């Protein structure tokens, strides 16, 4: 990995994003609209809103960055830029970390706007700090990026790529403890939920919701999610073949 | 295959004969079934070599959602060159006026020149060009060929594929391949002499037919 090449790659990916104002608009506005929807849905149940909105602040960046990254990486593969890049001094990790950092920055903006609205406009109430919520949201976004980079290797078209979203994201959302507490699930469901990274991200958010100060569980959960990011990036690197048929 | 430094070698052959496959093997992105390829004394695709090799893919491989300048600066940065080098490459392919345009809004010929600018960045030691002049008008083609010879004159080794025979005549050396096999490797003059005609188009037809009759 080279800092110069990594830096240039981050700048290049962010420039591509800047040339697409509609995507930027949607990245920022869509989570805000969904939060507004939740706010009105739970108008008379502020406790439920606090619980659901807090989890959603972590889920949105994960799902959105997963989708954006898998399409972006698929484009690199299908337009020939990936092959071209692999004939230059660029290393595979420069590219993968480039995506992780560039979209992580975009997610930081997205999460900050969503969190600001959730706290100030919609009256979200958590015992712990907003900054921790944003931190967890960004780590989740990077998890989405890493899984998107990996899954894009198994899609040949954009139609296929978008269908990895329900495969990868929906089971994690269903089993993360938002709909049914994980301890109350059937044993085999809880076991599945125990190996899905989003379960730990959601538990970390719930820790922020319930405790004024960061707990040991929170740091452990965040560490697990970060570990999953590293594993997904290593798997993604393994799918990036310099030589193809 | 030995391309002397400072020369332009033309790679010719019918569609599907393996020109692109051979070029991809030289830059190290092709799975090679048998044999090994070393380029400039290093295994094809190895890290030290990737600094010295420029590659133009057949379909333009630049980012459509970036401007010409942003693309050029990115590729310049990958090779460790500054913005001035990127500007020079843009000017060399005749895109100085379109530098601020998004690649998506360029014509097909301009788009492939944008891709070419990224390939010739910083004067690589080996330049592999897969059909660099397709879709370019005669004036531009002439200018591009002059540039290839300029680059070669400064010591670069250039391997260029083409279908167009009047371009073949501008190479120092020609390789004709068919179904993955090399059927001629000579100077244009020697190819003309061997086939017994001055017309390179006709010369290649004769060589291909001769090979069909008596497979080497």
TrEMBL record, chain A:
For this record, the Gene Ontology CC terms, alphabetical, are:
ATP-binding cassette (ABC) transporter complex
**MF annotations from Gene Ontology:** ABC-type transporter activity
How is this protein situated with respect to the membrane?
Multi-pass membrane protein
> What are the record keywords, sorted?
Antibiotic resistance, Cell membrane, Membrane, Transmembrane, Transmembrane helix, Transport
Q: Does the keyword Phosphoprotein apply?
A: no
- Keyword Transmembrane belongs to the record: yes
- One of the protein's GO biological processes: response to antibiotic
**Which Pfam families does the entry link to?**
ABC2_membrane (PF01061)
Q: Where in the cell is it found?
A: Cell membrane
Q: What name appears for this protein in its UniProt entry?
A: Transport permease protein
UniProtKB/TrEMBL annotation, chain B:
Q: Which InterPro entries match?
A: AAA+_ATPase, ABC_transporter-like_ATP-bd, ABC_transporter-like_CS, P-loop_NTPase
Q: Which UniProt keywords apply?
A: ATP-binding, Nucleotide-binding
Superkingdom field: Bacteria
Residue ranges of the ABC transporter domain? 1-204
An example Gene Ontology molecular-function term: ATP hydrolysis activity
Q: Which Pfam families match?
A: ABC_tran
Q: What is this protein called?
A: Multidrug ABC transporter ATP-binding protein
Q: Which organism is it from?
A: Phytohabitans flavus
